[in-house]
Design a protein that fits this description.
The structure is a single chain. With 282 residues, this protein is of the alpha/beta class. Helix content is 43%, strand content 15%. It has eleven helices and nine strands. Strands 3-2-1-4-5-6-8 form a seven-stranded parallel sheet, with helices on both faces. It has a two-stranded parallel ribbon with strand order 7-9. β1, α1 (11-20) and β2 form a beta-alpha-beta unit. The longest helix is centred in the first third of the chain and has 15 residues, at 78-92. It starts with a strand and ends with a helix. 45% of the residues are buried.
């Protein structure tokens, strides 16, 4: 029973591979990557698999029974790339696919939700056994902003009082490994989020406590925040995407009290304070 992980050289993919090696024979794990030069330390079989190369994808999936499709990081053509992987999996005879989707995909105001909706539909129509891992917010997503705030004393954003029910990539990786190595997940949709939630003002307070100096949260309009991010050197598309996450959080898109993640992985998700402490040690 071989298991393939797409995007295995990425931050989430690497964690999944590492954790999976503790559950199954590493010889049964296939790391699918666009650039094999980044995978010398994974300790598993590596197959080149560019999301934009259907023939290459089909070849990489030969002999694979289960696949974790990790969402593409590309801004353009994300859904098209996912459909390429799904089609290649069907042609290669894959039986099961899990996918890292988005929290409450159908109703989410987050700009990338449309790509996830298309991908989920294609998976359900593929004939494969499928599981949707609708991942919420990764606490590490704002690591650079939190660290900058600890130095400057000001955390900027446009999320208002919106709450983030975040968890770490490690927590989400545990969920992926769970569905890949146990039974009964076929046809399931898991809305995954952290056990507790916080506002960006709460983050500022926690940073203040940890570093021993005052950090405040400064809320801005989305246009003001985009302009500020561009002054920091971010391209417009990246700045707009980050602002969209904040404004979506203000609408409740990243808040969830279901605790399906901790129920699935069998342990509590990592608290914000613990993650911030680790970030500050960098």
């Amino acid at each position: 029973m071989s298991i393939a992980i797409t995007g295995a050289s990425g931050r989430l993919g690497r964690l999944v591979v590492q954790k999976l090696k503790g559950k199954v024979d590493p010889a049964l794990i296939v790391a699918m990557v666009r650039d094999s030069a980044k995978t010398h330390d994974l300790g598993v079989a590596v197959r080149q698999a560019d999301y934009d190369q259907p023939a290459q994808l089909e070849k990489a999936l030969q002999g694979v029974e289960k696949v974790l499709l990790i969402s593409s990081s590309e801004e353009e053509g994300k859904a098209r790339q996912h459909l390429n992987v799904i089609a290649a999996a069907v042609k290669a005879g894959v039986k099961y696919m899990a996918y890292t989707s988005l929290l409450r995909t159908e109703t989410s105001p987050i700009s990338i939700a449309a790509d996830h909706i298309v991908t989920e539909r294609a998976m359900r129509e593929s004939g494969l056994d499928v599981t949707m891992l609708r991942n919420g917010w990764y606490t590490e997503n704002y690591a650079d902003f939190f660290l900058a705030a600890s130095g400057s004393g000001t955390l900027y954003g446009c999320a208002g009082d919106g709450r983030f029910s975040s968890a770490t990539r490690s927590d989400y990786a545990d969920a992926a490994v769970k569905v890949l190595t146990s039974q009964g997940h076929e046809g399931k949709i898991y809305e995954l989020a952290g056990d507790t939630s916080y506002t960006l003002a709460d983050v500022a307070k926690e940073l203040s406590r940890l570093i021993g100096k005052v950090v405040t949260y400064q809320n801005a309009s989305d246009s003001e925040y985009i302009a500020a991010l561009k002054r920091m050197g971010l391209p417009h598309l990246d700045a707009a995407k980050i602002a969209n996450f904040d404004t979506s959080a203000a609408k409740g898109a990243l808040f969830d009290e279901g605790r399906q993640l901790s129920a699935l992985i069998g342990h509590s998700t990592e608290p914000l304070a613990t993650t911030l402490q680790q970030m500050l040690k960098r």
